[in-house]
Structure formats: structure tokens, C-alpha cells
Design a protein that fits this description.
30% of the residues lie in helices and 25% in strands.
Length: 335
């Protein structure tokens, strides 16, 4: 089999920070609740120049620099970031490709919302296995979907953790380090239209259009969504992690680190417990919030910085995105 591994990674976050105390004023939710229950100590907020492709490109350059390769050796660039991007009906991957000098590559987008990173990793691995010309593939994502939230809309409360940033992973064919071993994903289509953009969610006095997007993110049937997610979210997280690990030829007890998307603190702990893991085997992204499919590379970066990932460790990166899709990818860190 063709081995595919992570040769480099990078992140970028805007300099502007909004704290829980500041968010409390906007939402009317006590700062203690934001911090302790919703897990928002602070989040990064994009300025005008922090477009999705700018943030993704800065992160991508960091990944290329870490790998120490010539960007001309990259054969493919995949953008798996937000659809709330520089322009609509537009290929953000082409802009990212040009920005980092990967001008020998072709480029396209794939979109699975907040479940996108594990799926992008598995998609890229399959393409590299099928095409020996793809020596390096760049995955990049940016998100500023916090622009699309009305913080006075109670229906959107679970999205108040959205923050801005970019992340990137550079994959290498025939890699001997940081190899991708297995992946899994599952979609529950009964939840496909529970979160959509609506004009009803636009606050009084706000412009109905943000950039080129009309409306704000809203929940169409909060009671159904809460009931259905209560039934399926935990078992689906467990399932995709288990399946990714099994595809790796390993057991759940072999997992040493789990990089999870940001979510409320109680559910984060519930997932870890269901998988037989401890908080010391993960990182909680309370200083960043939820940055769509950037969360997984951020969790990997923080896990390494905090000494929670050692050479030889089995690492799983997992996420879930409205739609509703759950995804996970397993990799062996180091050689």
C-alpha cells in the first residue's frame, strides 16, 4: 500500500481577541456560563483583511515551511474551509494555490462543514494512492463563520463559540512519518436542514447581507434537533473513532490522543469517557472556540506543544458538522 503522512502543518489566527466578558455583554449570557459551561474563554475575530483564503494561505505557508519543501512540488491543493468565503460560486483553493506559489498544482474545494478535516485527509490519501504523480498534497481551511451569527438569537446559542482562523496540513506520498492509517464518517440526513441561513435570524438594524451571504445561521426546528442529536451524537462520535482505529489495525485502548472539535465542555468530557480516554489525552479549545474544520490541526498542534503526543502514539482527529456528519481519521505520529 502507498503510505501517506503529514509532512508539515500550520495555523493562523487573527490578532483581534474577544473575551468571555466581552461576549457576555453581546449575548446577555453570564461570562461564567460562557467560560465554564460553553467553554469560551476567548475567541479570535477576523478583521477585513482576514479573508478565508488569506487565513488559509498563511497557515499553508507555515505547513510548507515546516516541511521544508519547494511549493512547486505540490501537485494538488484542496480547500476544505468555509463556504462563507471571499466570493460565492468560486474556487477558494485556486487562490490559496497561487498565494503559496504551488503553481504546478491543480486545486479544488470539498465541503463537509465542521467534519471536513478528517474527510479531506482521507480523500487526499485516496487520490495520492491512485495517482503516483501526487508527491505532495496541501489541505487548507479558513473560517470566519462567526460573522453569520446573530448573538441575540437564542436559537443560535450553540454556535456562539464560533471563532476565526486558518489551518493547513501538507501530505507526503511514501511517507515514513506521521502516517494516516484509517478513517471513518457517517451522515444522518434527517438533520440536513436543521441549520440553515435565514432572514428571520438577522437582528433588527443589521444589514441582511454579510459579504456576499444573505441572512444569518439559524435553527429551523430546535426541539427536533436537540432530541435527535441527543439520541445519535455520542454513539456516532464513538462509532467513527472506533472504525478509524479498527481500520488502522489497532484497538481503542491503543489511542493515546484524541483531537476533537470544540463543543460544550460537558459533552467533550462525555465523549472522552465513552472512549475510555482522559482529559490529559486531549486538548480543549477554550481559547479559540470552534473554527470549523481548522479545529483538528489546531488540536494536533496544541497536543504536540503540550507534550501530550509522543513518537509512536496512535492519534485520532475527529469532528462533527451540521448536515449532520461525524468523521474521524487515525494516524501514527512519528516513525
Amino acid at each position: 500500500m502507498v503510505s501517506v503522512g503529514i509532512a508539515g502543518f500550520g495555523t493562523y489566527f487573527p490578532s483581534r481577541i474577544q473575551t468571555a466578558d466581552e461576549l457576555a455583554v453581546i449575548t446577555g449570557i453570564p461570562a461564567a456560563v460562557l467560560r465554564d459551561k460553553m467553554g469560551i474563554v476567548q475567541r479570535h475575530i477576523a478583521d477585513a483583511h482576514d479573508t478565508v483564503t488569506h487565513m488559509a494561505s498563511v497557515a499553508a505557508q507555515a505547513a510548507i515551511d515546516q516541511a521544508g519543501i519547494d511549493p512547486l512540488d505540490i501537485g494538488l491543493v484542496i480547500s476544505h474551509g468555509s463556504e462563507h468565503k471571499d466570493h460565492l460560486v468560486w474556487n477558494a483553493a485556486a487562490k490559496i494555490m497561487q498565494s503559496v506559489g504551488a503553481t504546478n498544482a491543480y486545486a479544488f474545494e470539498m465541503y463537509a462543514l465542521c467534519a471536513g478535516a478528517p474527510i479531506a485527509l482521507n480523500t487526499a490519501r485516496a487520490l495520492m494512492a491512485a495517482d503516483p504523480r501526487l508527491r505532495y498534497v496541501l489541505l487548507a481551511a479558513g473560517s470566519r463563520e462567526n460573522d453569520l451569527i446573530n448573538f441575540t438569537n437564542e436559537r443560535s446559542r450553540f454556535m456562539f463559540n464560533f471563532g476565526s482562523g486558518g489551518g493547513a496540513l501538507l501530505l507526503e506520498r511514501d511517507a515514513r512519518r506521521n502516517q494516516i492509517l484509517g478513517a471513518s464518517a457517517i451522515t444522518d440526513g434527517t438533520l440536513s436542514e436543521t441549520v440553515v441561513l435565514t432572514q428571520d435570524a438577522v437582528a433588527a438594524g443589521d444589514a441582511p447581507v454579510v459579504g456576499e451571504v444573505s441572512g444569518r445561521l439559524d435553527v429551523t426546528d430546535g426541539a427536533y434537533m436537540a432530541d435527535r442529536l441527543g439520541q445519535v451524537s455520542l454513539p456516532n462520535f464513538v462509532r467513527v473513532v472506533q472504525e478509524a482505529v479498527q481500520q488502522s489495525g489497532a484497538a481503542l485502548s491503543d489511542v493515546r490522543f484524541l483531537g476533537l472539535t470544540h463543543m460544550k465542555k460537558s459533552f467533550f468530557y462525555e465523549i472522552l469517557a465513552a472512549l475510555g480516554l482522559t482529559p490529559e489525552q486531549s486538548v480543549y479549545l477554550d481559547h479559540y472556540g470552534h473554527v470549523q474544520s481548522v479545529d483538528q490541526v489546531l488540536a494536533l498542534q496544541l497536543g504536540l506543544e503540550q507534550g501530550k503526543i509522543a513518537p509512536g502514539d496512535l492519534v485520532v482527529l475527529a469532528g462533527a458538522g451540521t448536515g449532520y456528519t461525524w468523521s474521524a481519521v487515525a494516524l501514527r505520529w512519528g516513525e
